[in-house]
Amino acid sequence: MVRLGFIVALIALIGVLLSGLAAYRVHDQELAIDGIALARAIDVHASLVQDRLTERELLARVASGLFRTSSMVKANMLQPLRSAIYAFKTDFVVAAWIARLKPNELTAAEAELKAAGFTNPSIRDFDDQALDIKALDKPINVLMDVEPRNPETLSIPGRAFDRHSVVGPMLAKAMANAKPVASDPVPLLRQNGPVGVVLAAPVFQEGASEPAGFITFSYELSSLMLTNDDSSLFAVALKDPRDSNDEFTSNEQGIVTSRAVRQDGPLPSMVRTVTFGGRDWSLDYYAKSNATVRAQQTATIVAAIGLALTGIVCGLFGYVAYNNLRLSREIEVRIGFERRLTAVIDELNHRVKNILAVIQSIVTRTLRHGADIDGARELLIGRIHAMSNVVTLLSESQWQGVKLKGLFESRAIPHADRIAVNGPDITVSARAAQSLSLLFFELASHSDEGLSLVGKHPHIVANWEVVGEDADAVFHFRWEEFNTSQATRRADSDFGLILLDRVAPEALGGTAKRYFTDVSYVYELTAPMDTVVDMTERDRTEQFSAPLRPVKK
pTM of this prediction? Predict the structure, then answer.
């Protein structure tokens, strides 16, 4: 009896020890996995927020760089930029031109606002109260143009924002720093409007030490920083830069509210800092579930099961072994995901650098010294539209190529309605699509200087074919403009000649030639299909987009 009791006690002791060990291991592993998942999700969200903020700040810098202030009192100053700012597809609430006007320019500004059709053309204070213009002795910042123009925004122009508690200091700081500056959170459009921030970029006339005005973009906090997903592991709040005891949160409907931070409330799980408009913003992340409680509950269940099955030692070891294998596979999947994410980021950085290099070349060649600024602006916007169109097509196909006929869409190619396109609808690689998109734009943009010698617009035919098979396949492209001659066709720009004769052929590993016949202008491009299609690039992209699977053991 004593011996049996000893054996039972020994088995019970072994069961208790094994159950306790299993509960301890599961508790730690659950905490570790939850911590890794939460930290990774927060890092990804903070990185996306920073990328979104950087993109908005880049838009402001580009807009201010393209802006030309021939006269500050005009009420349609945003007209040349409207197509450019919409090409970025950023979700701004309103874009505005705020001119820095001298007292003697205010009367002309009122007349300009009235002629532009704004509902209240008088120069007034930011709160729509009357402003004594005769008492002014220094320049003031007056809103002169808005985009979009709708019934809600048409009443805004004419307001002076120097005494606004938020916008006024922001404009003063932007003028002092000579770079984009973001405001404190403020209601947009109206007193009870959505909470957001305003980004102001100063615009300088050539040789001037003070800005002629400011390009501003207003964004809602809900879409810019505080987007919360119902299935996410955390809730995010923005620390109020004016008071560390307050923070902004967003609900499922995207409505942003301010709340006081409770001293006895839960502390944020993590804090991340993002940069926007020359200042730092703190994001507080609160875990939606208590990982410690959940881990303790899991450990309690494991311990209860272990104590209940103390007589089945093998089953207990099997259960622990299965748990360890499952957790090990999950960790391997997470490691594999991070490796793949790193590879994707490297690939994306490479492609973004290539695109930025192309855009830098476009801007440098287009805005060269001595170029006509109006014509250069149109060409620059058109070329960037062509690049934007091909990037959109590549994004829709997950960067696995673009259908060649898709590059002839009217939104990116001038006179697309007069181009007869013939040829197999092959899928070209990302690199080839970028070169061909710019090539088609350059050819089309110079194809219609006016009526030809026979009194007709040129009729354009774009043909291509693939000759040969497999490794010997060759891509032939022919562009022919009928009813045109060297006397009627606009001469190609320096950038266009370099693109047609050298850049596009070299990018595709082929050759090109252009010439005039008796009745037409012809451009021909020949390249091997290996560089036009580039299966290596497509296979690499397919590997990135393939679903991640756990390692089999």
Answer: 0.51
